[in-house]
Amino acid sequence: MACFDPEWNRLPYLLKGYLRAGEIKRPPQLAVILDLSRRLGREFLFLRADWYLVDGSVKFGEMTFTPGSGILERDLELDRAMGARLHL
What we know:
alpha+beta, 2 helices, two-stranded antiparallel ribbon, 24% helix, 88 residues, globular
């Protein structure tokens, strides 16, 4: 498991119960994925969009409106970082 910012800088956060992943290369379709995610999420305070890369094509998985079904335990630092980005 790994967290990245939109510029593909690896973030220091780790979800509880997950192992830290090794190197993960920047997907060549990252700009497309970010653009589609921004468009999908424009109307919502929080949206997680799942994407898959299949044979070089971007495939949509699902949209969710709470991280981890609302029950995922996160590092307190990650909660604070995510909360700082929300403007109510």
